[in-house]
Give the backbone structure.
Amino acid sequence: MTEALPPLALSLGDPAGVGPELIARCWAEREERQLPSFVVMGGVEVLRAAGAGMPVVEVASPTEAAHAFATALPVLPLPVAAVSYTPGQPCADGARLALASLEQAVRSAVSGTVSGVVTGPVNKAELAKIGFDCPGQTEFVAGQCDVPEGDAVMMLAGPSLRTVPLTVHCALADVPGLLSPDLLQRRIRITARALRDDFAIHHPRIAVAGLNPHAGEGGRFGEEDVRIITPAIAALRADGMNVTGPHPADALFTPRARARYDVAICMYHDQALIPLKALDFDEGVNVTLGLPIVRTSPDHGTAFDIAGRELANPGAMAAAIRMAGDCAARRNRR
């Protein structure tokens, strides 16, 4: 594991969502789930309530948190208004706490006082009400790291599958106009580098999905596969990369097909997320590639409807913590 490294920083997420209870469960099950040490940024009273009597301790630094982790969930206090634990009832103060927690977690990772960041689930609409103007946490983290938005690549990873959506938060009608050979090449190269550096896959096998049914069938069902995707793949293969496609997306996620690649590059959000969530919903992790820091997140939302009811599964949060620790350890060994 990664105990020689600084702890990971966990952002709380929206305190009215499932994030606090999942964080508490992960600390309580830290040994059986083989989790590295972590410190939560803010929300001590929320976590005490969500943990139902579980030991929670305020710490002054990540170093202190690493020593406290064995006996209590360590929390670094933040200078924001206290928020009561009201599951399923988001509010402006809760959104401010979520944002302050995210900001502190990223600052700590950039400064090197923590080994990586795991972000709890937030509600974009609630954050927008307090002036947060980023499309999502991924774009915010990239900006804080001075990484161009286009070079921060979202990968969804689970035990059965890894996928990368080339376009994310946009209308489906806009996708064809956003795709280009340059976009494909740039993001596939970032993905390949991350698979080597953070996941120890030294010769990654990369499968590229087509945009149209049957990958366009030679232009009969749309010309984007021939005009945009095929030339990008040819250029990457000319550089010695193991990239195949464009593959018809309806056959790319069968068990037999998945055995032939390490990551599937998809053209749009749902093409990547539907198979990942169908196969690995309770263990799916959102990993941001191309950053100077390690950042992961459970691949689910705030789930306000079940928050506080002991129905949320901690598997994805635990997987995100474990994956962040493993990636940080591999970077440390480089």
Notes: The chain has twelve helices and twelve strands. The two ends are 16 Å apart (CA to CA).
